[in-house]
Amino acid sequence: MENIRRLFWHKLIHSIRNVGLSTQMALLVIVGTVTMISVFAYLGTGALSESTQRNLQERVLLAQMTASYMDALLQNIENALTETASESYWTEPQRLDYAMEQAYRRLSFFASRVLLVDGQGRMIASKPILLGELSLADAPPVLAALDGKSFAVSHIVQTYPALGPSIFAATPIRDASGKVIYALVITLTFNNTNARAFARPIGLGESGYMDLVAMDGQILASTRPSRVNQQSDHEESLMSMIRDHRQTVSACHDCHTPIAEGVPQAEVLAFAPLDRALWGVTIHQSEAEVFAPTRLLQSRIFALMTVMLTGALTLVYLATRSVIVPVQELTVATRRIAEGDLDSPIEASAQGEVGVLARAFDEMRVRLKQSTEEIQALNRDLDARVQERTTQYEAAARENARLYAELQRKEQMKGELLHRIISAQEDERKRIARELHDETSQSLSAFMVGLQTVQMALHHDPQKASQHLKSCETIAESLLQNIHRLIADLRPSLLDDLGLVPAIAWYGEQRLHPLGIQFHMDQEGVTERLQPALETAFFRIVQEAITNTTRYARASNVWVKLMRQDGLVVLRVADDGQGFDPQVLQRANSQGQGLGLRGMQERASILGGEFELQTAPGKGTVITVRVPLAG
Predict the structure, then answer these.
(1) What is the mean pLDDT of residues 47-74?
(2) Measured in Å, how far apart are the chain's first and last C-alpha atoms?
(3) 326: which of 43, 256, 262, 311 is 20 to 30 A away, CA to CA?
(4) How distant, in Å, are the alpha carbons of 83, 100, 508 from that of 91?
(5) CB 205: neighbour CB atoms within 10 A?
(6) Which residue from 502, 513, 514, 565 is spatially nearest to 538, judged by alpha carbons?
(7) Strands 168-174 and 180-188, how do they pair?
(8) Please, which pLDDT band fits residue 84 given cuts at 50, 70 and 90?
(9) Which long-range contacts (C-beta less than 8 Å, at least 24 apart) are formed by 379-388?
């Protein structure tokens, strides 16, 4: 069978080669037409598919944007609610009316009512005033707030006779000791003022609408106000997607349309969940409106394909008629040249490309004679050129070797730089581990021993247990201070917010003042923020220098100066301590002092700068770092 197939194609190709130009052009027209139709069909299908996916993705993006907007709104609600609950007047019973008035003034943008709930979930105050008793002990956000959660919001709608369908947000109110005494609760409302995404939606067309759906399927907000507090369509599916926190877009039917209004129409449903609450955003829009651009594109593609095919067939026909006759004449002339007749001229009877081709053949005939005479001369020059090229190639080879050696050197420098960076990171990790081991872990051990002591004394001597408990509280406060200090050591917020000089000043005061060491900060010519990488490196160098001073120097004063000099930024850290032997830079002793100095050197080297150490036993220590400013 394979042999028969090969024989068939061989005969077909042989037959095509033996037919005339007119037949070949006709075959090309047929093949080209079929190919063009296939290509247009493929491109049209791809364009329609891409347009469809883009239209669906636009709905998903709109749902995601609205969900992000609602998350941001919930964040604002949380900030406003927690800030209100942190006010001191809540702990003063005689000022509760004033507190409720201030809370309602601050929260009424998000809430229709502000409630104050005691530890049993009973309402003790309301703004606006709510007559009668009300218990919110079965409201999950209220219970969460009373348990100490900083912010909680309802995931479902709950209905109370005095309030109606309600969505709550709650936060705890604590007394001076940190104990939860009340829960500040608001009933959320999403109207045209605070939920602008539903008041002025974008990209929904004429048939589209958007809903904010709670976990139980009830609609909290909608671009169609009549749907608020109604049960959403596809309740089970929406609950599953909210619970699994996944988004989707799919085709469905507007099953909420009453039967009297006609057969349900095909719709596109897009869904995106919220991050801060078990809610989701749904977008409904009719398929006819969503895919209207796609269908318009489809009709335009087929119309364009028809026009192009008609024009192509017409042009091919005219081209074949204007080309075949001149080509046949040109074929006869080229056969004469092939037979050795270089004297008979070729007349260009046709215009255009065929005429140009005929004139080119005639020029070829004339030059063919000349080329025969020139060949020998070119052969003589060939040896000389080969020798010259050989010399050039040898020179290029030597240049390539030099470039390769330079590349190897740069790769080695790159490896060394990476090694320096990794070493600096490891030194920082060792320092943090040492801090945690020397201070935090010991405090935790002491705290655990204290708790065990309290437990043993609790049943035998309650007064002694109380004393031990106060000791544990002192240890816990010290532990918290150590952790805060460690966090500040890792990355003080002042460095990002205000810059290098305020961060150094704050750090120096915080670390040195409690130890009785005077800290002096000075700057000269540095009026603007430096590059982030430079500020971070300088801060770490100062941090390490101050750490070494507090551990080893026994100094009374520390001076830090930042200045500009001749295109350089210079950092100088000095102390009046006992100094040390500079040879410690060559090794890392058991206290890690050498590692700290080496880390400063590495940071300066990474920035392309210089590190200088001046010290001697009993002479104090001066560290100077010079780094060029970027142009």
Answers:
(1) 81
(2) 76
(3) 311
(4) 15, 12, 38
(5) 13
(6) 502
(7) antiparallel
(8) very high
(9) none
